[in-house]
Amino acid sequence: MKTLDEFVVLFAEQLDETDPSNVTAQTKFRELEEWSSLLALSLISMVDEEFDVTLKGDDVKNSETIEDVYNIVVSKK
């Protein structure tokens, strides 16, 4: 299982306009200027590929920070 730090790096790779050095586990991802439903789909796809876990839209919707998403992924492993 990947660590939280590794998950943050993978999350940051989904972003085109945000400097990865500004992305932390405590980042409130929906407050990012570039956050969109398309990025949510990219996140769901990345989690499926990297962790073999199926995230649902509600999982993302009910999360506030990147760490929240990570904790959901871990709980589904």
Explain what the structure shows.
This protein has helices at 4-13, 37-51, 57-61, 66-76. It is mainly alpha-helical and 77 residues long. It is globular, with a radius of gyration of 11 Å. It is 53% helix and 0% strand.
Radius of gyration, in angstroms, nearest whole number: 11 Å
Strand content: under 5%
| Level-2 CATH architecture | Orthogonal Bundle
- The total beta strand count reads 0
The dominant shape is globular
Summarize the main sheet: none
Distance between the termini: 9 Å
**Low-pLDDT stretches:** none
Q: How many domains, as an integer?
A: 1
Task: Fill in the keyword field for this structure.
4 helices, 0% strand, 53% helix, 77 residues
Q: Topology, pairings included?
A:
Layout lengths: L3 H10 L23 H15 L5 H5 L4 H11 L1
